[in-house]
Amino acid sequence: MVEISRLLDELYAVPPKDFTRARNAKAAELTAAGHADDAKAVRQLGKPSASLWATNQLARLDPERVAHFVDLVQQTRRTQLRDPRAAAEAMRAQRVELEALTTAAAEAMTKAGYPVSRAARGRVSDTLLGAAVDGRLADELRGGRLTSELSAPGFEIFAGATAGAELRLVRGGKSAESRSERAAAQRAREQSKQERQDRAADAERQDAVRRAEAAERAAREAREAEHALREAERTAHDAENAVHELERQLADARRRWKSAQREAVAAARRARPPTRR
Questions:
Q1: Is 66 in contact with 108 (CB distance < 8 Å)?
Q2: Spatial distance between the Cα atoms of 53 and 11, rounded to a whole number of angstroms
Q3: What CA–CA distance (Å, rounded) separates 127 from 229?
Q4: Distance separating alpha carbons of residues 174 and 182, to the nearest angstrom
Q5: Range of lowest pLDDT (54-58, 205-209, 216-220)
Q6: Are the beta carbons of 4 and 30 closer than 8 angstroms?
Q7: Where are the domains of the chain?
Q8: What is the pLDDT of residue 185?
Q9: In the chain, helix, strand, coil percent, each to 5?
Q10: Are the beta carbons of 161 and 86 closer than 8 angstroms?
Q11: Segment 138-190, tens digit of pLDDT
Q12: Which residues contact 98 (CB under 8 A, 6 or more apart)?
């Protein structure tokens, strides 16, 4: 009996240059085994880009790190309002794991013969983040079966987090039967209780807003820092290319200068009158 899960795992491990041939072979194997619907679904799978293929390979190369990264992203979402300090620590750890996974994917691309550019690393990083924040896609990431590249999430990564249960005023006490001092005192206690609860609710809402704004600023600063880093890398790359070009021009000038020297010496020798004996 054909194990469909095994066939899919084998297919997703195939480099893009061999994907189409392997996909058709797997579909034919499924058809021969009587799994026509599965064979049709397999034939519809598109060839992955090198970046997507490398991202999927992380589940095979280091599944524990992939699972840990997903957990960190989910932890950041859960704690960003309830515990900003824990969220900040989780975000720092998340960045470290993201960089490590992106580097591992780049190494997989290099070993498979695919060029690794800054754009390719960026697509791997974005796909990792985009999958980790979504429950269904996170499962596909852990299984190494993502079918498309993803965009990195923005502040919506924190959607769904809550600051705690909303306070609710519960009225109680005996109904006033007269205008006695006891009834007046009861009403005063209830009013005081309501005011305290209202103040606590307002403080909680304001605190939640402040934490949300702080988390948004941190996320924005992280995106800006990442953009600045990429710009700096691009500038350094351009400068390195300029240096290589200048070195090439200098070497070429030296060759021309030496050639001119040799020609000058030869010309001087030819111009020298013959020695009389």
A1: no
A2: 11
A3: 19
A4: 10
A5: 205-209
A6: yes
A7: 1-47, 48-153
A8: 58
A9: 75, 0, 25
A10: no
A11: 999 999 999 999 988 764 444 444 333 333 333 344 443 445 455 555 666 77
A12: 69, 125, 128, 129
d(Cα 66, Cα 68) in Å, to the nearest integer? 5
pLDDT of residue 219: 80
* ∠ Cα 41 44 46 (to 5°): 130
Alpha-carbon torsion (150, 152, 155, 160), positive or negative: positive
The set of residues, in sequence order, having a beta carbon less than 8 Å from that of 142 and lying 6+ positions away, is 59, 63, 66, 67, 70
Structure tokens at 90: 């989780």
CB 190 within 8 A of CB 176: no
- Cβ pair 125, 152 in contact under 8 A: yes
Angle formed at CA 136 by CA 124 and CA 162, multiple of 5 degrees: 100
